[in-house]
Structure formats: C-alpha cells, structure tokens
Amino acid sequence: MTIQSRNADLKRVPFSDLALQWREIETDVMPELKALFEASAFSLGPWVDRFEEEIAAYIGTPHAIAVNSGTSALHLAMIAAGIGPGDKVLVPANTFIATLWAVLYVGAEPILCDVDRASWCIDPTDVERRITKGVKAIIPVHLYGQPADMDRILALAARHSLIIIEDVAQAIAARHRGKSLGTLGRFGCYSFYPGKNLGAAGEGGLVVAEAADAARRIRCLRHHAQTERYVHGELGFNYRMDGIQGLILSHKLKRLDRWTEERRLVAERYRAAFAGLPVEVPRAVNGDHVWHLFVLHSPERERLRAHLTALNIDTGLHYPVPLHRQPCFAQLAIDRTTFPNADRNARECLSLPIYAGMTSGQVERVIDGVRSFFSRH
Ligand SMILES: *Cc1c(COP(=O)(O)O)cnc(C)c1O
Q1: Closest C-alpha residue for ligand 1 atom 7
Q2: 360-376 burial, b for 16+ CB within 10 Å, e for fewer?
Q3: Whose CA is nearest to atom 2 of ligand 1?
Q4: From the alpha carbon of 69, which atom of ligand 1 is closest?
Q5: Most CB atoms within 10 A, among 80, 159, 169, 269?
Q6: Domains of the chain, with CATH numbers?
Q7: pLDDT in tens, 8-59
C-alpha cells in the first residue's frame, strides 16, 4: 500500500454529507433564489405554494400544509384531531423526543409503549395491552425509515376508535400496500430538518390530511389562526414555512426517489456484508424501508463504536436515552421497568453512515471496519 492510498484510507467517513446534495441542486437553485429575493417572498408565498402542490402529488394526498418544523406539524395535527387535557395518547418509548412534545403541548397524557424487537417501531401487542378508557389517539412513528406494523395498528385503531397521527419524519417516500406513509391515518406529519431524507436549508415540516375542513384549520393555525387580515379565529401560531425552504425542497423532491434508491443500495451492501457476523442486522420487516438510518444492534456497541471511531468512521446513536428515562419526565408517574426493548435499543443500537452519494470506497471502509472488529474480538 502506498503512503498516498493509506492517507486516503484514513480520511474521515462522515455520518452524512449534505454538501453533496447542494452540489446537485446549486445550478437550478441559484437563479430562482435571486428571483425569490427580488420578490421578497420570504414567508410562505409562491415557492411554498408550488412545493405544497408538488409534495401533495408526490405523496398522493389532497391536502399538504407546509410548516416550519416537524414538531410544529405534530403539534397542529394534535390540535386538529381535537386532542387535549383528559385525553391519552399512545406513543413509542423509542423515538425522537419531538413525538412526545406534541402530546404534552396540547395537555394530553402520553402512554408510552414498548417497541418491537425486529422493526424497533411501536409494538402492537404492547399497544393493545395499554389501551384503556380515555385513550383517544396513537402516534405510530415510522422509525429509521421503516413503516410501523400498520396492518395491526389500523385494525386496533378501528376496533378501539383511535385517531391515528403518523410521525413520518424519518420515512418520507416509504409506502404501505401501495400508499404513502402519512396517508394511512387521519394526519401524516413530516420533518424537513436538514439531515432527514428530504432536508431543507434550515427548518421545515409538513402536515398532510384527507379531510378538507381539518386541512383548512391547520392552514389557518400555522398563520396566527388568521381568518382574514388581522382577524384571528382562535389561539394561533407562527408556524409558517420560509419561502427559501419551499424553493430548496422543490429541487430536492425531484431527486428524492434516486437518493432513496442510493440509500437502499448502501443498506443492501451492508446487509449482505454483515450477514454472518454476531450482530443484529436491520431488515425491512414491514414491507418497505427508506433507510433514513442503518441501525445495528450489538451488546458490544461501545467497543465497536470506539473501534470505528479509531478508524475515522463516524457513527451515531438513535436513541441512547429512551423516553421513559428522560430527565424531563422524572416526575412522571410511570413504571420504568416495562420497556425492555426500548431499553435494549438504547444500550445496543449503533447507526452507521448512510446517505445518497456515499462512495463505494466509503461503504467498503465501513464494512471492513465492522468486520475487522469481529475478527479481532
Ligand atoms: C426529526 C423528527 C421529528 C421532529 O422534526 P423537527 O423538524 O426536528 O421538528 C419528529 N419525530 C421524529 C421521529 C423525528 O425524527
């Protein structure tokens, strides 16, 4: 091995690389950005309108309302679902914290549920166990890019008259029986945080709905609940999407299918390479998977992670502290012993680099890194 190729080998493999996306869209974006500035279309405006039309068609929904974050999207969906004090909402114990904020923002009570050991999404068997009077809604999170078990969740929701609000922040472009995730429940909530599969140049989010009246209300709520200029029908919010985000997202949406395909190819290479190793390799157990994250599980997580770090390979943890162990819920009277899978995930999960534009050499570096750990130990 020459010195040069050795140095190339030691170059950092980043967890993701958003500059690659920028290089693809830059030439298309720059003239439009100039036009946007000339028009001062900074808050909502024609570029956001265009994006809403495009994403509604892409997802296959009659109504798409662009907002300023995924957290805001979830919050408005909870309000439009009529959920408030006295209501209980089922939420997985293993998710990003924002899923839970939405429940707390409207004064409802979260009922945490354990996750399934294969998909790491909410476990329908545990959901069924925890349904009591007062449970009004469920927020299935399509975690890591994979659908939750929607066949069983839809059946449970029908049997117990639960409202489904899907958290699709990590799974845009994934489908269930031919339909986009986000269109199976009453509301679908997406995030365009830069690192998501479809990421803005800042913050962004989206709510999709089938019902025209609910969509109209959400559209109104995001803009100070303004019904006509300076007239406000109810408690409103400033959750508008920036014009710049609408513009950027339009150009990225055109490339989303190809980028998703690239993620799938990386995932397939990892899966084939790790098949014989003593690790739990993620797989698509509920049909589709868009691989927002590639999450391995190993009891040796800490040592494996240190080994990869020493090889200059970045990794992540999703998520190291489950919801029932968050310090902000220390006062919450919940039994903290009944989430064995969420706890296991927190201890054993390890996310490997995966993104559109990842080179074959980088994928190889990660594969060699993981393999060399297990051949040494
Ligand atoms: C990113 C994310 C959110 C929140 O989205 P923001 O745009 O960061 O507010 C909600 N739920 C899940 C599962 C997420 O990954």
Answers
A1: 70
A2: eebbebbbebbeebbee
A3: 169
A4: 7
A5: 169
A6: 23-253 (3.40.640.10), 256-376 (3.90.1150.10)
A7: 457 899 999 999 999 999 999 999 999 999 999 999 999 999 999 999 999 9
